[in-house]
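Bit of a strange request maybe. I'm writing a small parser for structure token strings and I need a real example to test against, not something I typed by hand. Could someone generate the tokens for this chain?
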Amino acid sequence: MDFNLSVSRLDQNGYDIVFRNGQSSLSKNGKIAAIAEKRGRLYFLELLELNSDNCALGAVKTASTDIWHRRLGHLSKGGMSKLTGLVDGFDLTTKFEIDHCETCVEGKQTRLPHLQKRVRAARPLKLVHSDLVSVR
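Reply from user aminoacidic:
Good idea to test on real output. This should exercise your parser:
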């Protein structure tokens, strides 16, 4: 299982991270929690002991275009295609699955105009609109 990991967050939580010769180790209080191996430009992490202390620091890597579409604020297919070439570790070479996103459809809808006749006041202060606040 691959994880995306924040080194600065690990440092804040007292973990020691050592990078040397394409290998990395992650330890806390002298006990090694994970090791990583460099492949290309990325390090792939292997958790040695899964517990609540180190499990909450990572997120499971997913290739689902639908999930990335929602995480990136309902980004279009074209925008996601551009990200594939610009960001390390973001590879969406699979078929795009965001053909129908209900949130995107709702966001593009407009409301119909109000057909009610507008009422205008004939003299000043005849018709007053205000917000009332009750203070206890």
